[in-house]
Amino acid sequence: MRLADLAAADVDAALALWAATEHVAPVPRDELEVLLGRDERLVVAAREDDVLVGVVIGTFDGRRGWIQRLAVHPEARGRGVGRALVTEVESRLHALGCRRVNLLTFADNVAGQRFWARAGYRPAPAVALFHRQLDGDTGDVRDGSAC
Ligand SMILES: CC(C)(COP(=O)(O)OP(=O)(O)OC[C@H]1O[C@@H](n2cnc3c(N)ncnc32)[C@H](O)[C@@H]1OP(=O)(O)O)[C@@H](O)C(=O)NCCC(=O)NCCS
Asked: What whole-number distance in Å separates Cα of residue 97 and Cα of residue 104?
C-alpha cells in the first residue's frame, strides 16, 4: 500500500469511492478541486497495485485541523489502510502547526466511532453541531451539507 497526495488522475476514482461508501457524505467535485488547488497537501490517497483503495481529506484553518471523508474500499478494510491514512494526515497537519484535530461522524456510524476510538480520538458529547446554508440550498445535514 502506498500513500500519496490525491492525484488529478485519481479524482474520479476518489469521488466514486466516497459516493459508494456508507456513512460518508458525497464530496462535490468543485469543493474537492478547491482543496486540491491549495498549497497545503492534505488530501491523501492510498493505492494498492495502482488501484485507489482509500482516501481522506484534511483541512487546517490555522487553529484546528479537521479530518473528513475517510473512506476505505470494503475489499481493502481490516489491514491498516484507514489507520495509515489517518496517521499520514495527522502528521501533515502537525507539520503545519496544528495541535488538535477534530472530526465529525454521523451519530449512527457506530463502527466508524469504534475506529476513531482505536485511533485515539475521544467523543465530545457536550458539543452540538449547528449549520446554516449560505447558498439557498435546503439540504440537511444528512446529505453532506454540514461537513
Ligand atoms: C472506518 C474505516 C475507514 C476503517 O478502515 P480500515 O482500513 O478497515 O481500518 P484499519 O484496518 O486501519 O483499522 C484500524 C483499527 O481500527 C479498528 N477498526 C477498524 N474498523 C473497525 C470497526 N468497524 N469496528 C471496530 N474497530 C474497527 C481495527 O480493528 C484496528 O484496530 P487496532 O488498533 O487494534 O489495530 C472503513 O471501515 C470505512 O471506510 N468505513 C466506512 C466509512 C466510514 O465510516 N468512515 C469514517 C467516517 S467518520
From this structure: 21
Cell numbers representing residue 14 in the block: 476518489
Q: Give the closest residue (by CA) to ligand 1 atom 17.
A: 115
Instruction: Report if pTM > 0.90.
Output: yes
What CATH number should be reported for the domain holding residue 108? 3.40.630.30
Structural domain including 128 reads 2-143
- How many independent structural domains does the chain possess? 1
For the chain, give the mean pLDDT.
93
- Ligand 1 atom nearest to CA at 76: 7
The preferred substitution site among 66, 115, 118, 141 for testing ligand 1, maximizing ligand atoms within 8 Å of CB, is 115
- Percent over 90 (pLDDT), the chain: 86
Please identify which residue in the block is written with the cell numbers 477534530.
102
